Amino acid sequence: xxxxxxxxxxxxxxTGQSMTLQCAQDMNHEYMSWYRQDxxxxxxxxxxxxxxxxxxxxxxxxxxxxxxxxxxxxxxRLLSAAPSQTSVYFCASRIDPTGNTIYFGEGSWxxxx
Amino acid sequence: DAKTTQPPxxxxxxxxxxxxxxxxxxxxxxxxxxxxxQIHSQxxxxxxxGLKNNETNEMASLIITEDRKxxxxxxxxxxxxDTAVYYCIVGPIYNFNKFYFGSGTKLNVKP
Lengths: 113, 111
Description:
- The complex is a heterodimer of chains A (about 110) and B (about 110).
- Chain A is mainly β and about 110 residues long.
- In chain A, about 0% of the residues lie in helices and about 50% in strands.
- In chain A, the strands form two sheets. In chain A, strands 2, 4, 5, 6, 9, 10 and 11 form a seven-stranded mixed beta sheet that branches.
- With about 110 residues, chain B is mostly beta strands.
- Chain B has strands at about 10-15, 20-25, 30-40, 45-50, 55, 60-65, 70-75, 85-90, 105-110.
- In chain B, strands 1-9-8-3-4 form a five-stranded mixed beta sheet, with no helix packed on it.
- Chain B is globular, with a radius of gyration of 13 Å.
């Protein structure tokens, strides 16, 4: 049982490049989400999904796309990277609406130059 | 959405109790109080949650005031490994998108 797995752990992008942050969970959780954390700040919700085929926007969705084709996977796509997207990204999952615990991945450190 | 107010940092001596306060004066009736912590460079970790009664688990105790406008997380015997940022979050249990992390409290446990 690996929990929530994120890849890559570190990435450097040039402005304008696109990339996908991968997230997978092996706990059969319905709810998955992506957060970003800027230095010295709390986590801000980017996008979330309540099940396969269903996604919605969080607090800071601009510049990011998500899809949920399977229960296990929830990739985050940066369409055209900007320096403002330099951040640490956390993927998280939760079993269902009654689950009190959110499980987080280890984080992906992204630098856009 | 209920928001929380926490002190930016606190110090605690190793072996002593750490009491971390949180104000959530706009909390509504269906919103729970959750505490998470984030040790440097790791993903946040769940600690405890409650609605209106005090709660205790193997990690901590949560004391919620009777009017539910504030709460305190208690680590009974803080260790150096408890040095982390502690987030107090309020949100409805059934609404995943209304789960906002603020800036938290940086707890420094000192020997």
